[in-house]
Design brief:
Length: about 725
């Protein structure tokens, strides 16, 4: 994110910091009563004010800036005896009130002055979760033209009390705890997830809510209506203690990794050539945060030999590609914010891309010799004491006289099927990789960048496939918006061969209708394929890099239409097909899963009817009394309420089969996704046939009838554009003897 804090406003934050210790200087009257849960407490001998929580612990207010987001003054502070104060254990530090302020980290210097520690500006949500604003445009869209006036400076040593959540974009909803109203209206709403709750005058007073923190919004149509806040609610009124801070370690040992590469000859166009590997080990007394690393180049070589430099933590790229400073001959990786847990070691790889070979001009010159090092402890920026035997130098890297092979990456697949809210295994990306060289390639790592409007936290279980073969999977998208696939077994791509790859993901039930997914290669270095001949990373062309003058440019770099994009579908109720895939099932089995589906509620709903059709019965429905199919039922996969069980003889005839209308009533809360499976037992007397299960009515093309699902918020039935579409032929199963 760009540093979009204006200098004039940064100066004004000095005034905020000058309030340091205001709370501690307050004098309040002495009371004889013993403290109760929820009280603000102090002693007569110490002016520090604490919040007494329901867990029996006292929480500190680090500064007036936190205190005044929760309280208007000190009139409610109770003075207690020292002995009583000491009987309450310390429980942590109170964080900023959700929705009250924006915040930015600063580093406080020894003389009391401070410096900006990070360009990120954060909004505060519930439980001390902070969410970075991804741009000044987002700040204006959510917080108005005067958003900078909402910022308070937070010393970076308090960062352990906050948890970083998903970044906010211009289309994000407000964080929980935000107070908003529409222009021209006096009605104030309390935002709780995707729900807006009207706040009455008693609700404002009872929860110590401040009108100074109310934002004016241009559109609140994306929020559902919630219950009114009419009085004191503990989750709103009570100060929140931040996460227990991880102790800050006193030492960091930096050493050359035993796996650091030996002397090597790197071909032209080779990517991600490992130059140096270092181990960072934190002392056992606490975690250590590394802010920046500076590597130094030496050796008789041209400064243009390497095009870009990278820093990796395992398979994860930590920054964008960096360039060499031609004056200082250094490569700097800043704003790493890399945490090394107490007593653990983090192994980092410093790598580079070799430029195209040239005989003259800008490019790589064969014979150039490179040596890279961490020259001194000054090259490691951290709050801890840096230990190590510097310089830590890698072995020589000599530029060879041949070039590595190359890969082209292209968008592929045309228009992908749009996923539904709550769908599992939705295809979100498809692309083609072509080996255009004379080397066999071994694809071992691939990272895709996600820039759609669907928040990264709403993706899970991402899987990389080639055809039906699962190559790698990852639980989610990381903080840099990358889905990093590290292949345990490299995929082999023969000479002049191309293959199409797909990525699937589970879409959260809290996704919104109209959210988009958008995947592409942010950097060609995010594809790592080793050539079998030279043993180095292939040059990759996704549209930005031209590997050779004769190569056809790739088309997967995010420009123009060079990406994979889908739009999430969903209304008040969304039904997603979650398999299983068509396959063969032998007769005579019990508890056969015939259909898996998910229901996501955009509002609070009550499902009153469930129609399940069995199409393609092996005998005429009139003969279904034989109960070749029995124990037909819908089961909640997570142990919630399902339906009763019926047999084949209970079905009503339809063309080519029969149906049963279950009337078991099930309630689903707004924003919740429930996963279900249709099970049945299959008699060994059943003859082979193609059978499939339908949730809904094949004749009317509706999943639910007009009176099957009720919106319990307005007591109206869900219909029209908010009703799920037909759910036909979701799964076909061949039944065999």
């Amino acid at each position: 994110m760009n540093n979009f804090i204006k200098k004039a406003f940064l100066i004004s934050m000095v005034v905020i910091l000058s309030l340091w210790g205001v709370v501690g200087a307050v004098t309040v009257p002495v009371h004889a009563n013993v403290a109760s849960t929820g009280d603000l407490i102090k002693t007569a001998t110490n002016p520090a004010v604490y919040y007494l929580s329901a867990d029996g612990k006292r929480y500190t207010f680090n500064h007036a800036r936190e205190y005044f987001t929760w309280y208007d003054d000190f009139s409610g502070v109770v003075t207690i005896a020292d002995t009583e104060m000491f009987s309450y254990d310390l429980g942590g530090t109170v964080v900023l009130r959700p929705g009250a302020r924006l915040m930015q980290y600063v580093s406080v210097q020894g003389d009391g002055t401070w410096m900006i520690a990070s360009p990120n500006v954060y909004a505060v949500s519930s439980n001390g979760t902070i969410m970075a604003l991804d741009s000044a445009e987002t700040a204006v869209a959510l917080y108005g033209e005067n958003w900078e006036q909402m910022i308070v400076a937070i010393p970076d040593y308090l960062s352990g009390y906050y948890t970083t959540g998903a970044a906010l974009t211009s289309t994000s909803t407000y964080p929980t705890g935000t107070l908003v109203k529409m222009a021209g209206s006096d009605q104030v709403y309390y935002i709780e997830g995707t729900t807006k709750r009207p706040v009455t005058a008693d609700g404002m007073t009872g929860n110590n809510l401040n009108m100074d923190y109310v934002l004016t919004a241009s559109d609140l149509s994306g929020y559902t209506d919630g219950t009114s806040v009419t009085g004191v609610e503990g989750d709103i009124a009570n100060p929140v203690g931040g996460a227990t801070a991880t102790p800050i370690g006193t030492g960091l040992t930096v050493a050359l990794s035993p796996s650091s590469p030996g002397a090597q000859v790197a071909p032209g166009l080779a990517t991600n050539v490992p130059l140096l590997k270092v181990n960072l080990t934190a002392s056992t007394d606490g975690a250590v945060t590394v802010n920046s690393l500076v590597f130094t180049k030496s050796g008789p070589s041209d400064n243009n030999d390497m095009s870009y430099y990278y820093l990796y933590d395992g398979a994860t790229r930590l920054t964008s590609g960096k360039s060499l400073n031609n004056t200082s001959l250094t490569v700097t990786f800043s704003n790493l914010n890399l945490s090394v847990a107490a007593g653990t070691t983090k192994a980092l790889t410093f790598s580079a891309d070799v430029a195209a070979l040239v005989s003259s001009g800008s490019g790589a010159t064969a014979g150039g010799v490179h040596i890279y090092s961490l020259a001194s402890a000054d090259g490691v920026s951290t709050s801890a004491q840096v230990n190590g035997s510097f310089p830590l130098s890698g072995n020589t890297v000599t530029i060879g006289s041949v070039s590595t092979g190359w890969l082209d990456v292209d968008a592929n697949g045309g228009t992908l099927t749009n996923p539904t809210v709550g769908q599992t295994g939705a295809t979100v990306a498809q692309f083609k990789v072509t080996n255009s060289s004379a080397e066999i390639m071994h694809l071992s790592r691939l990272s895709l960048y996600q820039t759609g409007t669907l928040e990264n936290a709403k993706f899970s279980n991402l899987k990389l496939y080639q055809s039906s073969t699962l190559l790698a999977e990852v639980s989610g998208i990381n903080g840099d918006s990358l889905a990093v696939f590290d292949l345990a077994t490299p995929f082999v791509l023969d000479k002049s061969q191309n293959r199409i790859f797909t990525v699937t993901a589970d879409i959260a039930g809290s996704a919104r209708n109209g959210d988009t997914t958008k995947f592409y290669l942010d950097s060609e270095s995010d594809v790592y394929a080793l050539g079998q001949t030279y043993g180095y990373g292939a040059c990759v062309d996704a549209g930005t890099t031209t590997c050779t003058s004769s190569a056809v440019a790739g088309t997967y770099d995010g420009t123009s239409t060079n990406y994979s994009e889908t739009t999430v579908q969903g209304g008040q109720v969304t039904v997603a097909n979650n398999g299983p895939s068509a396959d063969n099932v032998s007769v005579g089995q019990t508890n056969v899963p015939m259909l898996k589906f998910a229901i996501t509620a955009g509002v609070n709903i009550e499902v009153k009817q469930w129609r399940v059709e069995l199409i393609g019965l092996p005998v005429a429905h009139a003969d279904c009394v034989a109960d070749y199919i029995s124990n037909l039922r819908i089961v909640d996969d997570n142990g919630g309420s399902g339906t009763s069980a019926v047999n084949c003889s209970d079905l009503t005839a339809v063309t080519d089969g029969g149906y049963y209308q279950f009337t078991d009533i099930i309630n689903i809360d707004a924003g919740e996704t429930r996963n279900y499976t249709v099970y049945m037992d299959i008699s060994s007397s059943m003859s082979a046939s193609t059978t499939y299960v339908v949730l809904g009515n094949t004749a009317s093309a509706n999943t639910f009838s007009a009176t099957a699902v009720k919106n319990t918020d307005n007591n109206q039935y869900v219909s029209g554009g908010d009703a799920p579409p037909a759910y036909r032929a979701a799964i076909r199963v061949l039944l065999e003897d």
